[in-house]
Every structure is written in C-alpha cells, then in structure tokens.
Amino acid sequence: MRMRFLAPVVMSVVLLASCGGGSENKTEKKEESAATSETPVDNSMVTPGAAEAAASKGAALIEQKDCKTCHKPDTKLIGPGYKEVAQKYEATDANIDKLADKIIAGGSGNWGEVAMTPHADLAKDDAKEMVKYILSLK
C-alpha cells in the first residue's frame, strides 16, 4: 500500500521540479532579448549587401524548402555549395532566370551526375529570390 502511494508522489515531485523555476529564466531572457534588440549595430565591418542578403526573402525560402539536404553555404555536400554557385555565375537577369528554371525543373549535368530534385510546386518568382540570395554570397 505504501509503495502505491509513494510512487505517484515521487513522480509528481519530479515533474514539478523539472517544470519549476522556468519563469525566472524566461523573464531574464525576455529582458536580455529586449536589451539586445535596442542596441545599435555597427555594420562598418560587414561587406556591402551582406546584411540585406542574410535577411532576404530568398534566404527565408531556402530555410523553408529542402535545399539544406543537399547544399551548404560554404561546402559541397551532395550538390555544390552556394558560394561555389555564386562564383560560377554572375548575378545577371539571364543567369537568375536560368538558375530559377533549374531549381524548378531539377536535373543533372551542371555539377556532376547526381540529379537535383525538381521543385515543380515552387513559384518562379520565389525561385528567382532564392537564386538572388545565393548569387549575393560571393
């Protein structure tokens, strides 16, 4: 009888202990977050356009899609790294259009024999935003 009573009490104490104390940390984190968001940022050491590129719609779209499965910014994974693509292609309207079509259609041959998965559900304008972001990473 005592064991039946003791087990739920111990579990309740453990559960409450694991959940307790979180409100203080959340308050501190909120205050810290508010303080850091109000601090002015010195962009003098940032290359022109890097801050805008990091916050671009293209970067957000890449995060939402499956791109990171095969691509990384700096290194070749299954497909080329984004910076490698940026070095190969100038940011011209023709190249942006060509690469956006490649993202949508998929295929192989440009970077080896492993085929890129097609993204037929991706709007052309979104694909162009992704390409603009990638080409800004030079």
Write a brief structural summary.
With 138 residues, this protein is mainly alpha-helical.
Structural class: mainly alpha
What share of the residues lie within helices?
55-70%
Distance between the termini: 71 Å
Low-confidence stretches: 13-39, 41-46
Estimate the global geometry from the Cα principal axes.
Answer: globular
Annotation field: number of helices: 7
Strand content: under 5%
How many domains comprise the coordinates? 2
Mean pLDDT comes to 75
Full CATH superfamily name of the largest domain? Cytochrome c-like domain
Q: Topology of this structure?
A:
Elements: H1 2-19, H2 22-38, H3 50-54, H4 57-64, H5 82-88, H6 93-105, H7 124-135
Explain this structure to me?
- There is one protein chain.
- The protein has 138 residues and is mainly alpha-helical.
- The chain has two domains: 2-37; 50-135, Orthogonal Bundle (Cytochrome Bc1 Complex, Chain D, domain 2).
- Helices cover 58% and strands 0% of the residues.
- The chain is built from seven helices and no strands.
- It has helices spanning 2-19, 22-38, 50-54, 57-64, 82-88, 93-105, 124-135.
- The longest helix has 18 residues, at 2-19.
- The protein is globular.
- The termini are far apart.
- Mean pLDDT is 75; it is low at 13-39 and 41-46.
